[in-house]
């Protein structure tokens, strides 16, 4: 099959789940093109970007210069080129009566240009996140892209974005889209309630390569503290503030713990100040962003993973965090929250504990229980590994995705 992915920024270190799908499809012999808004500038990229030479498959939105005269000259060049390659798509992209400012600003033509510049008939156009699906729908309407439109919903697109754009933002997509792949049962119910036809939906999880995460049964020796870890971006919905306050309760009870926070983000300085105010600098450490190999090394010496996710003030929610899957695959017990799709992954009282959002005392209670009862760790870790192998193994999921595509075609 020939497949187009519409993904927004690419490559992005925090979205390896998209990369895993792309390379999985390539490994199965399918052709993949990637349509992205702008390059994601970062100090390093996932090794598979280089291994699969993916930059040759990426089509970035045409960038217009900011300087006015140069911008006008580039618009003329772009329009001339697109009229030569695909006059219908070029003129449709400039239909101000239908597309308004997206047409008059040349934004839609800039987005259509990569598809216009190459043969753009695909079996599948797979859009990750709802806003990218709306973009894909527009590119189909102007005949820049052709193919069955498939949308994966991840979380922010049916939580925060609905508050911003309204519950009717996907009404056209429900009608004109061909298939919708929410990543959890919770999100399936949500999109059906929003107006999506049930027979156009199929829950399809994101997943991990379990072979890259070695299972080790966790045990505690008397000579060292309990090592806790969190792996995520430092943004509101990750709830790291509540984990810090819960860990502080344990330390104040003289329970020997060390807490490592892996990740970066806009809340870094605020969280560091909180740790300083609580006088916990010797026990709570910020390790910054790490390559996946370094994350695995840190998790290998960790005993418990904390993922205290919350619904942010703007409505943003998690999907099912990949970091939880990775930790469970390694045999690490989980302490997380009853948030979004997390209860579909973490079985409460089996592979870990789930507490209400923002409940510091309950977080502290569950962490204290695990710290004082390390004999429970091996059974919890094994239960978690089995769940991930059964339901979140990327190889099985990519096989399922191919079957889903073929059924649609």
Question: What report would you give on this structure?
Answer:
By secondary structure, the protein is α/β, with parallel strands linked by helices. It has two domains: 2-207 and 393-408, Rossmann fold (3-Layer(aba) Sandwich), CATH 3.40.50.2000; 210-391, Rossmann fold, CATH 3.40.50. Helices cover 44% and strands 17% of the residues. It has 19 helices and twelve strands. It has helices spanning 16-27, 47-51, 68-85, 87-93, 96-99, 101-104, 107-116, 130-141, 160-165, 171-176, 185-194, 240-252, 268-277, 292-300, 322-329, 342-345, 360-372, 377-391, 394-408, and strands at residues 2-10, 31-39, 58-60, 121-128, 146-153, 179-182, 226-231, 257-262, 284-288, 304-307, 334-337, 352-355. Strands 3-2-1-4-5-6 form a six-stranded parallel β-sheet. β10, α15 and β11 form a beta-alpha-beta unit. α1 crosses α19, α3 crosses α4 and α15 (322-329) packs across α18. The longest helix has 18 residues, at 68-85. The model has no long low-confidence stretch (mean pLDDT 95).
């Amino acid at each position: 099959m020939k497949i187009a992915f519409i993904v927004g920024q690419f490559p992005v270190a925090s979205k390896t789940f998209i990369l895993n799908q792309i390379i999985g499809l390539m490994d199965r012999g399918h052709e993949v093109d990637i349509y992205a808004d702008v390059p994601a500038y970062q100090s390093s990229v996932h090794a598979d970007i280089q291994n699969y030479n993916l930059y040759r498959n990426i089509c970035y939105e045409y960038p217009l210069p900011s300087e006015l005269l140069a911008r006008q000259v580039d618009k003329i060049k772009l329009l001339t080129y697109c009229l030569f390659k695909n006059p219908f798509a070029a003129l449709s992209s400039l239909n101000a009566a239908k597309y308004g400012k997206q047409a008059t600003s040349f934004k839609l033509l800039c987005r259509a240009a990569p598809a216009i510049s190459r043969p753009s008939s695909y079996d599948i156009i797979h859009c990750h996140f709802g806003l990218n699906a709306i973009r894909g729908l527009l590119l189909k309407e102007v005949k820049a892209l052709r193919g069955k439109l498939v949308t994966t919903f991840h979380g922010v697109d049916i939580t925060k974005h609905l508050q911003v754009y309204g519950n009717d933002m996907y009404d056209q997509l429900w009608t004109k889209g061909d298939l919708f792949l929410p990543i959890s049962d919770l999100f399936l119910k949500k999109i059906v309630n929003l107006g999506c036809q049930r027979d156009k939906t199929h829950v399809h999880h994101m997943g991990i390569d379990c072979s890259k995460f070695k299972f080790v049964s966790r045990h505690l020796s008397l000579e060292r503290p309990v090592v806790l870890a969190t792996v995520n971006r430092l943004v509101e919905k990750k709830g790291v503030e509540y984990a810090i306050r819960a860990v502080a309760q344990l330390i104040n009870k003289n329970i020997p713990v060390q807490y490592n926070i892996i990740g970066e983000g806009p809340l870094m300085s605020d969280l560091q100040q909180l740790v300083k105010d609580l006088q916990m600098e010797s026990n709570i450490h910020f390790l910054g962003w790490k390559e996946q190999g370094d994350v695995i090394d840190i998790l290998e010496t960790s005993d418990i993973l904390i993922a205290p996710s919350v619904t942010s003030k703007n409505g943003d929610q998690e999907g099912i965090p990949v970091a939880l899957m990775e930790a469970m695959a390694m045999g690490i017990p989980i302490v997380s929250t009853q948030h979004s799709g997390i209860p579909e992954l973490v079985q409460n009282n089996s592979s870990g504990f789930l507490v209400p959002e923002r409940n510091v005392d309950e977080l502290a209670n569950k962490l204290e229980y695990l710290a004082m009862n390390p004999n429970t760790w091996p059974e919890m870790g094994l239960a978690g590994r089995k769940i991930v192998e059964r339901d979140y193994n990327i190889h099985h999921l990519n096989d399922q995705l191919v079957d889903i595509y073929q059924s649609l075609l």
